[in-house]
Amino acid sequence: MSNLKQNYFQRRTKDRGPRSNNRITSPDVQVISSEGENLGVLNLSEAIKKAKNEGLDLIEIAPNAKPPVCKIMDMGKYKYDAQKKANKAKKKQKKIELKEIKLRPVTEVHDYTFKIKNAQKFLSKGDKVKFTIKFKGRELQHSHLGNELMDKIKLDMKEIGKVELNPKFDGKQMIMVIQPL
């Protein structure tokens, strides 16, 4: 009973990485030597024997090919190189964030210039900027003030960014998104 329980609760792990040596399922494989030369289609046991003679592993490179392509190489070195390649690709990624700047239709000149400078800083770093103009109470009747403010923002941002989402109303607020050039 305890043996059954142990097997039931045993952690199931996915096989990580390519199949190698005895885990390869195809009876015949296309073999590439450790120097990179094509050895042709060989029986699986014969290919594993060649790899063992060199002190290396037989690794399945292209499992979907007919027959599967295998290379004679060191498994540890292969996994290490794959990990380094993945880390390098991850480093090169640039995550674009959406920064939000909130304004009111009655925002004063100094506050406006301060927020525009911040928006330009965000755009120069490569982030998108979302401008939000909130209307309160009767300000909603004067939506033309919001349109004028958005036009002014577009003019101030035209050297460093372009409009991705044109100004539109969303309830009691007006939204516009600008992306870097």
Strand content: 25-35%
Mean pLDDT across every amino acid position: 86
The low-confidence runs, each spanning 5 or more residues with pLDDT under 50, are: none
Number of strands: 8
Strand order of the largest sheet: 2-1-4-3
Overall spatial form: rod-shaped
C-alpha termini separation? 67 Å
Q: Report the biggest beta sheet as strand number plus sense, adding barrel if it closes.
A: 4 strands, mixed
- The top level CATH class name of the largest domain: Alpha Beta
Q: How many helical elements?
A: 5
Q: Helix proportion of residues, in percent?
A: 25-40%
What string, H for helix and E for strand, traces the elements in order? HEEHEEHEHEHEE
Compute the number of structural domains: 2
Radius of gyration: 31 Å
CATH superfamily of the largest domain, called what?
Answer: Translation initiation factor 3 (IF-3), C-terminal domain
CATH architecture of the largest domain: 2-Layer Sandwich
Structural class given helices, strands, pairing? alpha/beta
Question: What attributes does this structure have?
Answer:
single chain, alpha/beta, Ubiquitin-like (UB roll), Translation Initiation Factor IF3, 4-stranded mixed beta sheet, 5 helices, 8 strands, 38% helix, rod-shaped
